[in-house]
Amino acid sequence: MPPADMAPMGYKGLLAKGQRGFVEMYMNILSWRKGGITRVLKAVLEGKGGVLFHCNWGRDETGIVAAILLLIAGAGTELVELDWMLSRIGIEAVKAEWGWWVGRQLELPFTSQYPSRDWKHLRAYASLANTEKDCWRAFLKRVEEEFEGGLVRGYVMCELGFSGEQIWWMRKNLRGDVEKDKDEVEMEG
Questions:
Q1: What Pfam families does the entry give (predicted)?
Q2: CATH top class, domain 8-184
């Protein structure tokens, strides 16, 4: 899944909203990136080998896809949350550059890409480097509200149109050891 231009999703304006903005951004990812998420899941379903998916920082789009795959594979929600929070490790390496980056933005002219040189707006960009489990939990709660059944039953099956049997085959391809009957596969999330 190639990196997406986040601008169509209203990425910039959401950052200043804190947790609510993260939830909106993640819901937008589920909507705007349906095609990419579907392609990843179809590649897993085909089971022809490894599947590579990525985004710019490895947390937002990648985190959602990884969460879906982990849930399909049978991981519990706590493990999925921990996996998402571990993305902070990769972000820590660039946090030192944020001070330089924010300072540089103050020198840039007003543009649609950088709609404000206000410190509040720039601090919102810097908040991208923070990974709070409450944001992830709020996102999952919103997914449950929007797509009854959570990420797998609600989003993958109802919104993307994958069947229970296809989910079973994805789980088998991800784990290689599915022993349960297709009708017995439980899906968390």
A1: Y_phosphatase3
A2: alpha beta
